[in-house]
């Protein structure tokens, strides 16, 4: 949960941070009012409980029946008032927790201020777009022409925004996943195979609920949620645990399919396979000491960039402004690959420092040494990389005049072919 003490002690700082995110700064006032009401009600409740305890002891020593019965009547009145106040405490705590659950993370001081994606800062651009001596095709034309991408059968099977990869297309996608996992394993990550459905509390702990409830798929009967990203089960791996600080950092990598309703993409360009309800992703995740998370973020970014560099596809890195930050992030870099057929930069990764935001919601703590007080860990996450946009970039950048696709050299041992014809 969001740090209530920070709101109590630095309300103006929190209000300013919310304004910079384009969020409602009056959230702070709602939380402070609920917190004050809760503390006042608790104080009255504890005073009444003390009165009841004293009266109960006195009743046991009273000899006069009339006096004892009168005192018992007072205790009954106190009990009735206590019951009312206990319900009031439950109600105000529910309102307070709900308000805290909807509080986004606060941006780091070095995050550029801005209103939306137009104010993001391009940190660097690596590589130069390939000069074509022919008009490059978009993947939605090239894929079907080669018989590796089938939109019609995807729609027949599952409806709009689904597709089928077949033959070399399926092999190329699988190769990308396997190769990316191998690269990240060599970088020091530990691979985990995760459930593709998780409990509601795990989704809440990762910061996806309640804000993104309408964008997630759910099995209502079991109250299980399909993962929209491996970040969610990776966060939950250590939920409720106290970690040994000497073992930190912990670096994990996992492949999962991801399921999203894409309700937030209404009105955006959805042609091709850029925005689907189901997609694949390799996710990197870190648990680390608080003081090390800024450096861990830079390393995480470089680990994701390594995939782009090895594929020899032009890419650029953006530092997101305050108004474009994700709900749980305090600082985020986006990586975008150039897609010449689409004629646009496609986001293939977001690398974020979340600080202690998810750790508080998931109750993930550590001790620096035996007997030391517990502290919340910092968590970080980053796509390494997301498909199918990486697949799009490969298909469109490596296409040839005759309508074939050269397989990137690093993928050939996995695809078992040099050219897709």
Describe the structure.
With 421 residues, this protein is of the alpha+beta class. The protein contains 13 helices and 18 strands. It has helices spanning 4-9, 11-20, 27-61, 65-101, 139-146, 151-158, 168-186, 200-205, 231-236, 293-311, 357-362, 389-397, 412-415; strands at 121-126, 149-150, 164-165, 190-191, 197-199, 218-219, 224-226, 242-244, 250-259, 278-288, 315-319, 331-339, 344-355, 365-367, 375-376, 378-386, 405-406, 419-420. Strands 1-11-12-13-16-10-9-4 form an 8-stranded mixed beta sheet. Strands 5-7-6 form a 3-stranded antiparallel beta sheet. A 3-stranded mixed beta sheet has the order 8-14-15, with no helix packed on it. A hairpin with a 4-residue loop joins β6 (218-219) and β7. 37% of the residues are buried. The model has no long low-confidence stretch (mean pLDDT 95).
Radius of gyration in whole Å, from Cα?
27 Å
Class computed from helices, strands and strand pairing: alpha+beta
How helix-rich are the residues, as a percent range?
40-55%
Distance between the termini: 53 Å
Shape assignment: elongated
The oligomeric state of the chains shown is single chain
Largest beta-sheet details: 8 strands, mixed
Q: Return residue spans where pLDDT drops below 50 for at least 5 consecutive residues.
A: none
| Beta content | 15-25%
Number of strand segments: 18
Widest sheet, order of strands: 1-11-12-13-16-10-9-4
| Number of helical stretches of at least 4 residues | 13
Residue-averaged pLDDT, rounded? 95
């Amino acid at each position: 949960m969001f740090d209530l003490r920070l709101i109590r002690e630095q309300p103006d700082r929190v209000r300013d941070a919310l304004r910079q995110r384009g969020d409602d700064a009056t959230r702070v006032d709602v939380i402070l009012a609920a917190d004050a009401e809760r503390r006042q009600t608790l104080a009255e409740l504890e005073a009444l409980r003390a009165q009841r305890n004293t009266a109960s002891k006195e009743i046991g020593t009273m000899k006069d029946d009339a006096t004892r019965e009168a005192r018992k009547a007072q205790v009954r009145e106190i009990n009735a008032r206590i019951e009312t106040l206990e319900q009031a405490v439950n109600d105000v705590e529910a309102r307070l927790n709900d308000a805290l659950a909807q509080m986004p993370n606060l941006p780091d001081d070095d995050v550029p201020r801005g209103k939306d994606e137009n104010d993001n800062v391009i940190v660097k651009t690596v590589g130069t777009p390939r000069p074509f001596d022919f008009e490059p095709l978009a993947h939605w034309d090239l894929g079907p022409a080669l018989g590796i991408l089938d939109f019609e059968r995807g729609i027949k099977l599952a409806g709009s925004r689904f597709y089928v990869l077949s033959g070399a297309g399926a092999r190329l996608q699988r190769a990308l996943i396997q190769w990316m996992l191998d690269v990240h394993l060599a970088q020091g990550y530990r691979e985990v195979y995760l459930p593709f459905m998780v409990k509601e509390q795990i989704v809440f702990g990762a910061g996806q609920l309640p804000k993104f409830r309408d964008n997630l798929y759910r099995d209502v009967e079991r109250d299980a949620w399909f993962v929209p990203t491996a970040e969610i089960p990776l966060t939950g791996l250590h939920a409720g645990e106290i970690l040994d600080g000497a073992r930190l950092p912990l670096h994990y990598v996992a492949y999962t399919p991801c399921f999203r309703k894409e309700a937030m993409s209404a009105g955006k360009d959805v042609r091709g396979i850029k925005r689907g309800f189901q997609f694949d992703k390799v996710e990197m995740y870190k648990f680390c000491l608080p003081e090390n998370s800024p450096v861990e973020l830079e390393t995480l970014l470089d680990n994701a960039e390594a995939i782009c560099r090895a594929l020899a596809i032009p890419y650029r890195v953006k530092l997101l402004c305050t108004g474009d930050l994700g709900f749980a992030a305090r600082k985020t870099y986006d990586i975008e690959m150039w897609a010449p057929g689409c004629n646009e930069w496609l986001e293939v990764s977001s690398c974020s420092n979340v600080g202690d935001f998810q750790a508080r919601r998931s109750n993930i703590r550590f001790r620096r040494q035996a007997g030391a007080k517990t502290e919340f860990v910092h968590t970080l996450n980053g796509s390494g990389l997301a498909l199918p946009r990486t697949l799009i970039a490969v298909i469109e950048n490596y296409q040839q005049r005759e309508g074939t696709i050269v397989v990137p050299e690093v993928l050939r041992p996995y695809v078992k072919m040099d050219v897709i014809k």
